[in-house]
Design brief:
The protein is an alpha+beta fold. The chain contains eight helices and 16 strands. Strand 8 and strand 9 (235-238) form a beta hairpin.
């Protein structure tokens, strides 16, 4: 697979950076963002700056639709891609609080017809990408036999996942895997008795007033939805791929920076899960050999300039490129973070 640089419709949520410059006559944040957009050839992005729980800057830059000259605004709806994983992980932790899921239970407790190779894989392994399941580049390989399709059912994706070879034993290493977060979606549906899209909508989006947030539905008309672009042979082109995935718990949520502000406030304010649950979500995983890896449950947990950095990126993975989203929560200090590069694998297009 040829890998190309993703470049467009990036969404950023920054927490606490350069607040002294916000509102200045010459805003260095604007200057930095515009310079990076030009350098990386990013047509449009949305930015929010939060400090001490207050939004001090919320702004769109560039275009959400290049053909129609539609500008990005704080109401522009972006495909979150793998930033979806934090919602899936939080849903699992809510079910843990409800006594319906155990982090150290084997996934065969919730899923039927699991292959023998999956013995020993726990819910915790799925959350932390340490199960040994197929990588982002190789997962769901059997789905692509015969070419891309318009629809992928949960049953088809599960069957494909069971055919993927294991990469290593549970807990031995860290390897990013969409397969794991798809399986978490299945566990959520089994343990809750609800469809994934219904649970996250009724438990998270509606109570928090996240009115512009939804789960992948290729038939739906999403007001203010951004188009996706990439570079192909040095030229800006549309991203191809509009398949409907029945259970997109690994990459299928759409949202705006306005709604992500609501989500961040509720998550850190203890209104979604208990603070003790959030502590587990934001704790780096410990491997079998006692070493740790900077990833918790659906979040990277890293350090930057002596401060804790909690973030996650996302890209819609198609054959020729992907837009990238960066969601950053940072408690103190100053942070500037721009889009990553690199095609992120071969999940259902």
């Amino acid at each position: 697979m040829k890998q190309t640089r993703p470049l467009v419709v990036a969404v950023f949520l920054f927490y606490g950076f350069f607040s002294s410059f916000v509102g200045a006559q010459t805003d260095p944040i604007d200057a930095y963002i515009k310079a990076e957009m030009e350098k990386r050839r990013i047509p449009g992005l949305a930015l929010t700056v939060i400090q001490h729980g207050e939004v001090i800057k919320m702004q769109g830059y560039g275009l959400a639709n290049v053909e129609l000259d539609v500008p990005v605004t704080p109401d522009t709806v972006f495909w979150l891609a793998s930033v979806t994983k934090q919602f899936t992980a939080t849903a699992i932790m809510w079910l843990v609080e409800e006594g319906k899921v155990g982090l150290d239970n084997q996934i065969s407790h919730y899923l039927s017809n699991t292959p023998d190779a999956w013995q020993g894989i726990t819910v915790r392994h799925l959350l932390t990408h340490t199960a040994g399941l197929a990588s982002l580049e190789t997962g769901f390989r059997a789905l692509h036999t015969g070419g891309a399709r318009a629809n992928y059912t949960t049953a088809e994706m599960f069957e494909a996942a069971t055919k993927d070879p294991m990469s290593f034993g549970p807990g031995e290493r860290w390897q990013y895997s969409d397969v794991g977060y798809f399986l978490l979606g299945m566990i959520i549906e089994k343990a809750s008795g609800q469809r994934y899209r219904a649970l996250v909508t009724e438990r998270f989006f509606q109570p928090l007033g996240m009115t512009a947030t939804s789960v992948l539905d290729q038939w739906a008309i999403l007001k203010n939805r951004a188009s996706g672009y990439t570079l192909r042979n040095g030229q800006l082109v549309h991203i191809r791929g509009h398949a409907q995935v029945e259970l997109p718990s690994h990459y299928g949520i759409f949202s705006t920076v306005k709604d992500l502000v609501k989500w961040e406030a509720a998550l850190t304010g203890g209104k979604v899960v208990k603070p003790s649950s959030l502590d587990q979500i934001w704790t780096p995983v410990r491997l079998n050999d006692g070493t740790s890896h900077p990833y918790g449950f659906g979040w990277r947990v890293e350090a930057l300039f002596g401060h804790r950095l909690i973030d996650h990126s996302g890209s819609t993975d198609v054959m020729v490129g992907a837009p990238v989203l960066e969601h950053v929560i940072h408690g103190t200090g100053h942070l500037v973070r721009c889009s990553h590069q690199g095609l992120r694998g071969t999940q259902p297009p």
